[in-house]
Amino acid sequence: MRRISLYGHLVELLGMLESTREPADQLAGRFLRERRYLGSRDRRFISELYFDILRNRSLLELHALHGLSLSPDVIRITHVRHLGDARVVPARGIPPIALLTAHQLHFAHEAPSALLPDVTDLWRMAGASGDISRLVDTIRSSTIPESILGDAVARMSLQHSIAPEIVREWVGRFGEEVAGAMCVASNTPAPTTIRVNTLKCTREECQAALTREGVNSIPTRYSPVGLILEKRVNSGALESYRSGMFEIQDEGSQLISMLVNPSPGSVVVDACAGAGGKSLHIAALMNGEGTIHAFDSDAARLRSLRTRALRSGANIIRDAVVRFDANPDPGLTGTADVLLIDAPCSGVGTYRRNPGAKAGFSVGYSTSLSELQYSLLERYHGVVKAGGRLGYATCTLLRRENESVVERFLEKHPEFRLIPVPDFIGPLGIPSKSPPYIFLLPHETGTDGFFAAVLERAPAR
Question: pTM for this one?
Answer without folding.
Answer: 0.91
